[in-house]
Write a structure and sequence with these properties.
2 copies of one chain form a homodimer.
Chain A: E1 3-4, H1 12-35, H2 37-48, H3 54-59, H4 63-112, H5 130-143, H6 146-153, H7 162-169, H8 171-174, H9 182-185, E2 188-195, E3 203-210, E4 220-228, E5 243-248, E6 262-270, E7 277-285, H10 307-327, H11 331-336, H12 346-358, H13 361-371
Antiparallel strand pairs in A: 2-3, 3-4, 4-5, 6-7
Helix pairs in contact in A: 1-2
Amino acid sequence: MNLSVNKTEETASDSVEAAKNASNKKEKLADQVMQNPQVLAALQERLDNTALTPSSYIETLPKAVKRRIDALKQLQVKCAHIEAKFYEEVHDLERKYAALYQPLFDKRREFINGEAEPTDAESEWHSENEEEEKLAGDLKNAVVIEEKAEAGETNVKGIPDFWFTIFRNVDMLSELVQEYDEPILKHLQDIKVKFSEPGQPMSFSLEFHFGPNDYFSNSVLTKTYKMKSEPDKTDPFSFEGPEIVDCEGCTIDWKKGKNVTVKTIKKKQKHKGRGTVRTITKQVPNDSFFNFFSPIKVSGDGESLDEDSEFTLAADFEIGHFFRERIVPRAVLYFTGEAIEDDDNFEEDEEGEEEELEGEEEGEEEEDAESDPKKDSSQPAECKQQ
Amino acid sequence: MNLSVNKTEETASDSVEAAKNASNKKEKLADQVMQNPQVLAALQERLDNTALTPSSYIETLPKAVKRRIDALKQLQVKCAHIEAKFYEEVHDLERKYAALYQPLFDKRREFINGEAEPTDAESEWHSENEEEEKLAGDLKNAVVIEEKAEAGETNVKGIPDFWFTIFRNVDMLSELVQEYDEPILKHLQDIKVKFSEPGQPMSFSLEFHFGPNDYFSNSVLTKTYKMKSEPDKTDPFSFEGPEIVDCEGCTIDWKKGKNVTVKTIKKKQKHKGRGTVRTITKQVPNDSFFNFFSPIKVSGDGESLDEDSEFTLAADFEIGHFFRERIVPRAVLYFTGEAIEDDDNFEEDEEGEEEELEGEEEGEEEEDAESDPKKDSSQPAECKQQ
């Protein structure tokens, strides 16, 4: 009987939103009240009654009490600044521990890419499901698919498509990956998280290490996330720890004709005077995971981004955070699927699958998959939970 | 454009549950497969196809690759143990910072209980809504309610009912508070969080400090939560940081006839032989917030609790965590309502309220409140969001 007690599960943005709503509400209320005597009377009744919001309750308090509440708020701001220092120290700890994890991650990289072979001791693993696996093993013998597996055995180097499989298993990533990205991602050999040096502004970088390939000449693609660990001056109470506030990509040195982030389209142009028509080619942006390395710029001049850009940027920050917090530290569990969370309708899915096994619905499902050419049919349906 | 990047938002219990479901599923599958040749054929088709779960995909891999995956899992367990040490150091940091917050919390306690009066500098506060507050001020003059406020002004000590108001504002707590708990909670003067000493098993205590009162003679009621920061041997991958694993209350020295956690009922007993009837009185448990100090015992002998008890205990752990992480560090924001989160139907509530102001529905709402004697009608309806 355990309860997870990780740091707060609420997001700062939630509380900001709530504050805004509350503020709009109050303004509306004040307008109505000042214009309408009936409303005024109704409000008076509400004040006499106790059906008050906490903030309107505060308004009914004597001045001396309000003054003390203001003093408490001032103390609260001081707490927020101490909390900011706490998170900076946590960041230092994370840097310290990154160094402790690194030798294990290096071993991981070697096993994945076939640079080293685990010893018997290193590969010993007692699965909880050993009996089950034995059963599955018997089954395989029965249906003679093992031959195929054995045939390739001697040549296989490391764990093929390790990182690419993770991209397929994790919804948040597979949504970004296009068919033409796949052969490129198969060259991905490692992802590393690097923290900013002590004394530097708080940030972390994701390093995507690629083997030599026909697509670009970079061996590493990087994405850096800048963070902020200080209470906002205009809204200090919304502070909930470090936040990602900006990010920066890198230039990909695409080989000729291999840039998947643009596509070439042909366009007809008519000469205004002469009326002659010519065809020009034009490069336009193309959907691709590799756009991850050319993020939208956070406007620095106080101008706000449009809603679409804000959404895109928020999604990008979420992905960066997810790489850092989940995928890089526990890659093997995203590869095997053990870390893939069940979503709300897990129960339904499960029952659905049992039905399929017993009846003919499975065939239907496959037809669905084939009828959608964009859908990667090699994507296991059940991996899509995260 | 910020994104909160606090520690993982997933709970360990979620992933444990997911793992269990997945395991049950596999067992069922194996049973069906071995008994039914048609199912066997269907499964074979599934294997040839790529509609595989990540784990069944793993099963199709050559032995040498599986061996490397096992090596990665072994490394992953080592990572979990390093992570456990990380969280122990975070706990040390929290202890260090608790000492830095304490002077501010002591000041808070003094202002709340009228032990000290803030200076002008200490109570300076520029509200974002100053204009709005001015409007509200004008309004008050108009409806002459200020007189009432001014009248009490000179006598009011500190911030009356500070902690009690927080109990009313926070759903999770107000649900536990009975009408007869309220006069007791009005004597609550402070809540403190104390961390376990360095080198001791990880735990924290909540101290509820009460002023002298007619109900019990304790000046402090305590609740201690024991924590664990180590990966579970049978399920190391579910580790997500320290978890509350047990808790302990304290004995409340109730004054005669004041114990709200029991009630006396009269019961008629019939003598088996003689047939005479006598009336006995019996003490039975009674709903009360103060049951918080007599939690269910976590069974130590490996016997599992029944479902109800597990639920009660999980709710208790959640409350303990909430006091520690949210209420104690930011009490004033729960008093003013600024920290009260909007729940999903905030929008609906808001619209509902506007209608009430314009029409007659308010009266209806009050009737509802009055028709339920258990409902505390002094409880502001809108405070009930959290």
